[in-house]
């Protein structure tokens, strides 16, 4: 359960924005925004009225108990009734409760503006005569609020990173194990260490499969001479970590080591630029310079990184051409990679907290030794 004081700060910030925009009701439907503002994602809808307490609307036996446990806010419960024929069916919706409780709302902000069906439905319920309530977008505001992490959020993200690293360090990879087996064991370890779940489906890409940046794990067995790329993270109390390490199974040849070192140098160089005031594109460009010198630039086909928090991909991309500047307490990934068709791929990734004068990597204590599995056996 998130501390009440933490949620109060978030709700207050939202209400200040509502006040400026003359919004008298905000409705939150997305999983991550609901968790962020109320402490639970188990309700159907969160209503934040400007001049009243927030209310969660949850369905009887489908999250209402859990929502009450996890959120300090009032939970309004909807209970359907199914009789023996269609006339005896009573199935109210969250919007019905909202329309009844907040019938006077004239300007409503929602975080589901892109869902045309929901917006249409909402308009219908807030119709008085020919006029309906004005519907505004709240998702950009939530995005802005979530970029900057509080001390409490940072502590959860540190724990998430620590769980992922510990889980990895107790992983025993043996020759002949399949990609799926390795991923399952790593995810099991994370859950054992109190992760809610993996922050995304773990990627274990072996041999030529490492070419696919978003590989889907197969039953391919790890053998001597393979590249092994593992991209994973834990979710802890809602908050994600994101790590990638690349290894060589057996004695790495010079062709691998030179490329590996180029990617590692690019990753470390970018890290030097992840601090307050630097533009979003600068760390990516610095990483690209290193890969260009190594003749590998054409194989670096994605951005350097992305924002992380409750969602694994949040606002901001660190990429050439992106405008905006890093601020203290943002959390981003630093993950340059190269993908050479027919050969394979190398990616090295850390989750990084943006500091005032320097970066604070949350996952750097996990070794970046391509020979890791050989030396640890
Ligand atoms: Mn990532």
Outline the structure in words.
By secondary structure, the protein is an alpha+beta fold. The protein has 2 domains: 4-145, Creatine Amidinohydrolase, Chain A, domain 1 (3-Layer(aba) Sandwich), CATH 3.40.350.10; 148-376, Creatinase/methionine aminopeptidase superfamily (Creatine Amidinohydrolase, Alpha-Beta Complex). It is built from 11 helices and 23 strands. It has helices at 4-20, 31-38, 64-70, 94-101, 116-125, 139-147, 151-169, 179-192, 254-272, 282-293, 372-376, and strands at 25-28, 45-49, 55-59, 74-78, 81-82, 89-90, 107-110, 127-128, 131-132, 134-137, 197-198, 203-206, 227-232, 234-236, 239-240, 243-248, 305-307, 314-318, 331-334, 337-340, 344-347, 350-354, 359-361. A 6-stranded mixed beta sheet has the order 4-3-2-1-7-10, sandwiched between helices. Strands 11-14-15 form a 3-stranded antiparallel beta sheet. Helix 7 packs across helix 8 (179-192) and helix 9 runs antiparallel to helix 10 (282-293). The longest helix is centred in the middle third of the chain and has 19 residues, at 151-169. The mean pLDDT is 96. Manganese (II) ion (MN) binds next to loops.
Number of domains: 2
The residue ranges in which pLDDT falls below 50 over 5 or more consecutive positions are: none
Number of helices: 11
Q: How far is the first residue's CA from the last residue's CA?
A: 40 Å
**Helix/strand/pairing category:** alpha+beta
CATH superfamily of the largest domain: Creatinase/methionine aminopeptidase superfamily
Query: What composes the largest sheet?
Result: 6 strands, mixed
């Amino acid at each position: 359960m998130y501390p009440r004081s933490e949620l109060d700060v978030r709700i207050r910030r939202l209400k200040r924005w509502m006040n400026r925009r003359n919004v008298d009701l905000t409705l939150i439907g997305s999983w991550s925004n609901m968790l962020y503002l109320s402490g639970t994602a188990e309700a159907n809808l969160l209503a934040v009225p400007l001049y009243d307490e927030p209310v969660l609307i949850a369905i009887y036996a489908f999250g209402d108990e859990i929502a009450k446990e996890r959120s300090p806010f009032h939970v309004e419960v909807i209970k359907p009734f199914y009789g023996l024929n269609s006339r005896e069916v009573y199935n109210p919706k969250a919007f019905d409760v909202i329309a009844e409780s907040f019938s006077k709302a004239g300007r409503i902000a929602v975080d589901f503006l892109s869902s045309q069906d929901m917006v249409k439905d909402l308009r219908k319920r807030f119709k008085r005569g020919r006029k309906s309530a004005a519907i505004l977008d709240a998702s950009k505001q939530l995005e802005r609020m979530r970029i900057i992490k509080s001390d409490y959020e940072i502590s959860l993200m540190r724990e998430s990173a620590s769980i992922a690293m510990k889980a990895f360090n107790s992983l025993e990879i043996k020759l002949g194990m399949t990609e799926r087996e390795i991923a399952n064991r790593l995810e099991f370890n994370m859950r054992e260490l109190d992760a809610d779940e993996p922050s995304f489906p773990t990627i274990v890409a072996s041999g030529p499969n490492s070419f696919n940046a978003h590989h889907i794990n197969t039953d391919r067995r790890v053998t001597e001479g393979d590249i092994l790329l593992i991209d994973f993270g834990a979710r802890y109390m809602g908050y994600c970590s994101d790590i990638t390490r690349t290894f060589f199974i057996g004695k790495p040849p010079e062709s691998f080591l030179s490329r590996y070192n180029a990617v590692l140098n690019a990753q470390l160089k970018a890290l030097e630029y992840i601090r307050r005031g630097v533009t979003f594109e600068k760390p990516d460009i610095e990483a690209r310079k290193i890969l260009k010198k190594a003749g590998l630039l054409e194989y670096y086909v994605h951005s350097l990184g992305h924002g992380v928090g409750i969602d694994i991909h949040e606002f901001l991309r660190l990429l050439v051409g992106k405008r905006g500047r890093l601020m203290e307490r943002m959390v981003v990934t630093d993950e340059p990679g190269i993908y050479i068709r027919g050969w394979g791929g190398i990616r090295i990734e850390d989750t990084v907290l943006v500091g005032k004068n320097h970066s604070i990597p949350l996952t750097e204590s996990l070794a970046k030794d391509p020979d890791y599995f050989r030396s640890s056996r």
